[in-house]
Amino acid sequence: MPTSPLSVVVSDHGPVRSRLAALAPSTSGRLGSSDFLRLGAVVGLVGWTATAVLELLAPVADLAAPTAGLVALAVWTPLVGVMVGAGLWHVPDAMRFSLPLLGFGLLNGLATTATLWAVIVGLPATVGGDPFVTVPLGPVADAVWSLWTVDLAIGYAWTADALRRDGQPGRAAGYSYAAFLGFGLVVYHAAGVDAIRTVRYPTLAALHALPLALDARADLGGLRRTAVLYLVVFALVGVGALL
Question: Where are the domains of the chain?
Answer without folding.
Answer: 27-242
